[in-house]
Each structure stands twice: as structure tokens, then as C-alpha cells.
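Our preliminary data section would be incomplete without showing what the modeling component actually yields. Below, a chain of 61 amino acids is followed by its predicted structure, encoded as C-alpha cells that our downstream tools consume directly.
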Amino acid sequence: MKDGHLFLNGSLSYSYLSPYIQAANQHKVPFTIVQNLEADTDIGLVLTGSEGSLERDIFLD
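Predicted structure:
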């Protein structure tokens, strides 16, 4: 991915984050682990890019 960045939810256990961190490192995608104790979210990660998406439903279960 060109010009992408991965944001990971720091409230999740490292065992859940580890595969995504390894994939980001393998593909040279920079990542940030974000922890906001004031917010409650079901979102585990966000992958940004320089181009938008035409998909309406971009959430994965």
C-alpha cells in the first residue's frame, strides 16, 4: 500500500494486535497503537490510504 497508515486499538490484547503488526512490518506499512481511555469502540483497527474507497460497507466482522 502506498501512503497508508495502520491505526490499532491499544485497548485490545497484544495477542490480537500481533498478527496485524507483523503484517504491517512485512509490507512496510507504518502503524500507530492508539489508546483512548475516554472512548468506547468496537473498532479494532483502521487502515488509511491516499485514495478513498467506493465501498459503502467497509467493516469486517
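The radius of gyration is 12 Å. The mean pLDDT is 85. Preliminary results of this kind motivate Aim 1 of the renewal.
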